[in-house]
From TrEMBL:
Substrate binds at R555, R611, E743, G764, T765, N766, D767. It comes from the Bacteria. Residues 54-292, 299-347 form the Pyruvate phosphate dikinase AMP/ATP-binding domain. This is Pyruvate, phosphate dikinase. The lineage of its organism: Bacteria, Bacillati, Bacillota, Bacilli, Bacillales. The keyword Plastid does not apply.
Amino acid sequence: MVYSFDEGKASMKSLLGGKGANLAEMTRSGLPVPPGFTVTTEACHDFFQAGNRLTDELLQQIHRALSLLEKEKNQQFGHPSNPLLVSVRSGSVTSMPGMMDTILNLGLNDETVEGLAAATGNERFAYDCYRRLIQMYGNVVLGIESFQFERLLHRMKKGLGVEQDQEVKADGWRKLIADYKKCVKAATGADFPQNVYDQLRGAVEAVFRSWNNQRAKVYRKINRIPDDQGTAVNVQSMVFGNQGEDCGTGVVFTRDPSTGEKVLFGEFLISAQGEDVVAGVRTPRAIQTLADEMPEIYERLVSVCRQLEQAYKDMQDIEFTVETGKLYILQTRNGKRTAQAALKIAVDLVDEGVIRQEEALRRIEVSHLEQLLHRGLEESAPMDVLAKGLPASPGAAIGMAVFDADTAEEWHKSGRQVILVRPETTPEDIHGVLAAEGVLTSRGGMTSHAAVVARGMGKPCVCGCEEIRIDLERKTMLAGGRAVREGDWITLDGVSGRVIGGAVPLKEASASDELLRILGWADEIRALRVYANADNPEDARIAREHGAEGIGLCRTEHMFFAPNRLTAMQSMIMADSQEDRKAALDRLLPMQQHDFEGIFEAMDGLPVTIRLLDPPLHEFLPNVEELKQKILQADSEAERDRLKRMIRKVHSLEEVNPMLGQRGCRLGIVYPEIYDMQIEAVFKAALAVIDRGGTVLPEIMIPLVGDANELKVLRELVNRVADQVLVADKKRDCLYKVGTMIEVPRAALMARHIAVYADFFSFGTNDLTQMTFGYSRDDAEGKFLTHYLDKKLLPHNPFQVLDSEGVGQLIELAVQQGRSLKPRLKTGICGEHGGDKDSIAFCHQAGLDYVSCSPFRIPMARIAAAQAAI
Ligand code: PEP
Ligand code: MG
């Protein structure tokens, strides 16, 4: 359950956690890593199983590893004159930056602190370490809020009349330690533990427990990290960056994590400990200035960066410390990066011959690609620039300023767009960052918590904006001589670091050269075709620009919801006779035809799947309460009569379960004239476009089929109308298909029979999920589904991620049955799942021909489809 750093290696990540495995690998390759050991993720499982307790067996193993470490360091844990000090840090299998806990300087107590002072000849340093230990231990292990310590620290500095921590002398720290101890006693009723073994035990337990803290759980949920992975604990001998001017600590990325450029990127602080950099308490200096301050260290660091990048074949995020002129590497991991940077780095690594195209594709995080479609500022718009900070995460965002994470979350829930403004963020603010459009902080550098988290989530972020003054109590910020209050609109530009008053218009992004290259590689590898769900010419155009190879779903009812069309639609529904209905439909026909022409033109030469009317008719009529109001306001008897008739019609169309009622093909069978009109519009539009020289491939799709006879009847209707419109040789120019959606479970079960009349199957997985689970797609989330997900009864929301185990079986069965009759039957998916990467992977495995998703998700789907094929 315990491995020394020289026993492990990089491939043992699931046992040692990412950090432990990398520390071991670096130790093996001779890099200057302070020695230590890793308590494994298996020990973490045992800890939970034993009821959040370290077993005696494990404690013995830890003590054994500790004595080996004592020998190696020639120091002793708890020794009054030659004390060994350690850090205790979490290290999960999948990196979760800043989400879990760390304790430094463990092993200090009233006695050993004197020993450390004597051994280093630096009393000030020793007491600074001790107060840090009490503060971190107090917070992480004993659960005392950090602001309690911060307040005491602030008061002490104020009393001494100093601003910076470095200005505090040994006496100041000594006094603060006395105050901290009182604080611990008051909060817990017990003294700060003087027994160093108790400290170690408490720290290891706390790190294991932190796996289940709120912010770690939220992070895992967002990033789909399994809850049962557990964390390892790394116990590492301390090196000190806070001993004086020949010491320091920093973070360096081997390439720029914002742009991907091949330059060292990072920050360091002279005379500081690790958490000072990441916590954003002091604003650090750029790594390049280290070349002047400590030229030899800088050179060594550059070579370590090169070595680590070559070993891991990826951009590294490295933590280092300089202790009295010697460089130590404390950690390396694959660095988090923006989408732009991810693409540039992947493409550059392929060009540099380090990785292959497949590997580059595999590394693209599909969720990050959305960042590339992030918007920028409309630069020609007038701008009231209030301040400028560090451009920490690209993209532009507008929203109302809020000054705490809870308000950000509340306002977001009520539909408002917010920008979270904080002096700095801590992992406790993660729900606020999640809710916000963007994040602004007044302190902290490019590797501060806010910056790392925002980049990971693909949210614009400006940090270290020291020109603004934030008053958390009054919920205001002063910037550029003006006050911004809670609720005032502001704009952030994460590319330039500008903070702008008001809401500046934003413009959509366009694809970078790197993205185009990667997409090109993806297109060569993937088997699935990628279509778009698009209902109008504009969406079809955007979809094609993003690489759509056709339209997989055009929901024709969306065309009826425009105001002038709705009236025609309503008169059609209200018609008493078939003639009246026909007359109303005749008014709708040219409108539909016009839309279809636009879509065919945008998709010239590519298939366009047109789904005939699906929703129940009552959805096109106003609700009864609205109609009653209108009756009260009506100024003529005739108008009142019309409205009353409408109410009667609404009532007559009302159903207890409209989702299972007269919709889809059922509607088309009862009112064939509606489908008749739609089909006529499709073919007339096709003819018009063909006459203008276009190539049209219409695929008419029938919704909600559950029995072969439904499709048989409607296929005949399509053919009949086609024969009427496509006279003589026109039929040859317009090769159309007729197919069905498979969205009723019975359709999947009867697929062999249905295939007789179908040229294609398109899985409508929204309805198929609804009807297979028996969960209403409109109500489930608000009622019980969220609860189910919280309680982990289901791994994912099945309306977002396809339930491959259950619903997936129906899909596989239908594909197999359909193809047993027609081996080349075209199959695809057009429910929301068509834009989800895991669902796309399933579709690939199930052997579908295409996925269809919204236009903006198409680049993502192309990459996900390639990843599925690798
Ligand atoms: C579906 O049910 O998956 C589908 C695409 O149709 P709609 O969402 O329009 O019901
Ligand atoms: Mg449907």
